[in-house]
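Table S7 (text form). Paired inputs.
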Amino acid sequence: MSLLIQNVLLVTMNDLDEVIEGGSLVIEGRWLKYAGTAVKTPSGPFDRVIDGRRLIAMPGLVNAHCHSPANLFRGLFPSRPLEIWRNYWRAALRPMGKEDFYASALLGAMEMLKNGATTALDHFFGNQAVRFMGAGEAIRAMRDLGLRHVVSLTLSDKRYEETVPLDPSAALAPEIQRITQSEARASRAWLDECEAFIAEHHDREKLTTCCPGPSAVQRCTDELLTGAAEIARRQNLPLHIHLAETKAQKIMGRRLYGRSLLRHLESLGMLGPNLSLAHAIWIEEQDIELFARSGVTAVHNPASNLRLGSGLAPVPQLLTAGAHVALGTDGAASNDGQNMFDAIRLASLVHNPAVRDFRMWVTPAQALRMATREGARAFGFPAGVLAPDHLADVVLLRRDTPAFTPLNNVLHQLAFCENGSSVDTVIVDGQIVVEGGRLTRMKEEEVLALATESLERLRPGVQEEMVAAQTMEAALADMYFRVGNQP
């Protein structure tokens, strides 16, 4: 399909952060062929013309870290430190079946698309009783709605008690053993599973990129980490890992490796532009320069970091050093939503009190860049910029809304004022998947009904798992306070 969007306010997110009033976009198939001033617009014919006089065009947002199975559990868990919260969250996954993973991914994909995200990385862990833990069902859901997706299969091969600084007496608890049984698997078995998953589902023509996703550095043996990196390198794929989300994880890094978690990845030869690292909160000062030098991308998740009290990533310092930083929502069980405009606003604001030098504060342009081109770069996509020869992933927002009235500075207002409610049209891979604020490929009422039915079916099993998980809270709380007192 050829499509002309004319007389539109273009927010290009190019190297100059260029904004063009009365501009034009030309889409041919899945590619942008022109983005610029109206006077240089190529002549048609076009299959469709959109009058953009009341619209703002920007690149589609890239959610660089989320967990689709969490969408059914939004608002369910109280705010707790990550190690306590994670115990409940992983327990809630155990009753889930194929239909639940599909419904949960549909719900999140709908929310993201309607709020301007065109790509999401799903760091997927589900239920090992289901093929590929249910990741194939998540892929089916995101394809059905037209959301570009990277599905990073979560891998871990260490016993749970080896990965957190628990009191030794707590390591023998029955629930600890259940956690290990539901999460860990032998290194070779995980690597074989990951390769089979990629072979079966990876298909960029169908919007799907599959890749390895080691759970976190301290949860994986070096064999698993290097094996995952080799798969990614051999098949030219991204690689995605949680890094230093809590103080306990930083302490475990020092205990296990005698160095920071990032330095350990460096020692294994894993750092490079294809590697993205979620959170990167409790990193060391020398790690910041290593991020910048290696081309690795840190993925900032401000909402979940606040919700779980994990801390604030040193984003201003990373940006000042020239490091690459992308932006994510994290899962809806710790956010509790998948709205990237919320993430942009938080990233623009939360660091100011912690950084005395206001010249280092995150600017709106930087936050928008994190949410577009930096995420696309991390996953190897020519996207995140309105420019020729980039993927036609485009969002059109109405400018006759409170967020843009009066229109003083469109970059500032996208970052500070917009909440997704102005999104009118979303184009992914040259196809219109949201029009007039509504999905085009599935009835929204059907998505909501499937999600509601899933949770009603799951509720008894989830409640049973919550009771079992609660037996670990005291030991995990003891660890949290003990770790908090360490320098």
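Next pair, protein 2 of 2.
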Amino acid sequence: PAIKLEAAAVDGDPESVKLAVEVEDQGGLLRLNTAKLLAEAYYELKRGARRVDVAAAVEEAVAKGLATLAIEAAQGRGVKVAGFTGGVAYNRRITKRVRELVEAEGLKFLRHVRAPCGDGGISLGQAAIAGAKLL
């Protein structure tokens, strides 16, 4: 989905569609409300907004939300580093924007370089653990 979103957002203007970034505290666990975000995106499409602009606005909102989660978690724990992984990290635009926002808060940004971000990275880790147990 992250790669399809990236393709849909090419040449889109994220500033032309305003989508709310809602971070919720659920019993001490911060969560990005993506259901509301997608409902707003759907409404904007029905209202006549260009698909590329809505896709770009979704990327921007997801990036802001994820960066907010990372920054608040790091600062709350006194950590100076934020890592970014998972399938969404395949989206270059989201990754770039999360990096900008995290670094603007003085945190070091980490991302995968040698291992895949998503399921491939999990598989690699599982293979490493299995290999270590066999030795």
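The radius of gyration is 17 Å.
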